[in-house]
Queue: 2 jobs
Job 1
Amino acid sequence: MSNFFEQELRKLFEDGKVIQDPVFVGRACLGGLDAGRQVRAEFVTMGHADHYEALRLTLLDNDLGVVDKLTLRLKDLWGKKEIPNNPYLKSGVDPHIWVNDGKTDWYAYHPTPSDYQQLRQAAGSYLDAFRSQNKEHSPKLIYICAPPAGRGREKH
């Protein structure tokens, strides 16, 4: 039986297009980026216990360990969400998953398919910057070989 966090991570990464060969363990999704590098995705709190308001992506290298991390705050991507007909949340709510009395769910606002797609795209854009195929866009170094001074130049 999968937990709530796993179900949400599956909605984002199960198809293997953003994270290759994803494996879901507890509250994390682990999978490949390219040869020798993996990705861990997990929902995290931002200082308020049991309010999971961000998705953290950690880039791991087989030889170097943690290479980079990015924390995608849901409110930065989705903004404050209005909750119609709720007199207690007149100004809306910052999207987050919360744990209350042993139950885990989205607090007041439940993401739409387009919200999930927007989060997938943000994660994918970040990971694409590290994929091997993007190295062809980096500047190429050109080595110019010349004979050492005094050699190969004959004076006549």
Job 2
Amino acid sequence: MRTLLSRLAPLALALAGAACQGTNMYTVQDDVAMGAAAFDEVKASENLIYSGPQYEQVQRVTERVVDAAIELDPEISNLFAWEVVLIDNAEMNAFCLPGGKMAVYTGILPVAGNDDGLAVVIGHEIAHATRRHGTQRVTQGVLTEIGIEIFTEAAEFSTDQEERELATILAEVGLGLPFSRDHELEADRVGLFYMAAAGYDPREAVGFWQRMSAGGTGAPPEWLSTHPSDVTRIQKIQALLPEVMPVYQAAQISDS
């Protein structure tokens, strides 16, 4: 009788192929439509701020970083109707929906500290949109479910709920979570170039993630998380700075 691991071997191979980054069953137009619909729900359900220094800061920084994204990645950025709202919420959070609809929580502004720090956040979120991470993640989830169904049936243990649940857990830990962490690191990397091209100092990203780490509450081990650890992020950012700083310096010269 085959062991569970031997029965899951073809499943793991199939899911590895299904979860490859870049796989996306949705069109860019789908991104725009899905993001706009979700954004309407956000605006209807959240307490939004429409004026004041914090609102002006968020709009100002977003406009500049969006302009940089359009300059660097016009083929995708020009297809989105960019918009950002400020949500009155103490949570240290921000997000960007597919299609370029963004939200910043007031709770993250003290951690950002200044325009450069906020540009770290905005650049990261814009990069999620331009790299189409949202619909890629939905695609990965759908393909994973299909893979589990196919191979649990082929291995004739689909009626064993415990084994099926184990297959789902293994797929998430082995493929889903690493896929999400890769997206986060890619958004960090691309976002650094966006903020630098907008004239914001990418070195501020190190300080921002140090402050996020100091203000955080007991994160799970990296391998069990959708996000890389703050230590990993800081190390990756520091390694990228020699490549990104010339972009920032060129932007400073053009602005002078």
